[in-house]
Amino acid sequence: MIRVLFVCLGNICRSPMAEAVFQEYVDEAGLTDAFEVDSAGTGSWHVGEPAHRGTLTVLRRHGIPYDGRARQVQPTDLAHYDYVIALAGENARDLRRLDRSGVLDGKLYQLMDFTPPGYPRDVPDPYYNGRFDEVYDLVDAGAAGLLDHIRAEHELA
Fold it and tell me: What domains can be seen in the chain, in order of their start residue?
């Protein structure tokens, strides 16, 4: 089982979108049983809430289901997941601060690490600017690249 965790600030916009899009790619590739995919936030403000309506609207428009609830990342998550994918540098820094035992070494990435040159480093937070379609395009590119990376690394057909 390959475990992937997407992390943003509040776990209602970017990381649930990334979780849903990545899961869709995994399912389309016929690899559902090989993966555990989840998302979390570094903050606790939205714990228990559904994804932001902007995220849900964009996902529905692309035919991607999502019904998760926001949760806060826990220190145990850092050891449990094989790939911890931050949506922005701020999230990666917060995760490093949470990682007191060094378990993130070699498995913490930013989603945009898996896109071709020319893409931005961070996925902007649409909570503040409402650009959910722009975020979807970035997340889609990153999720596709991440799956390609994992498939090559684990020699998955």
Answer: 2-153 (3.40.50.2300)
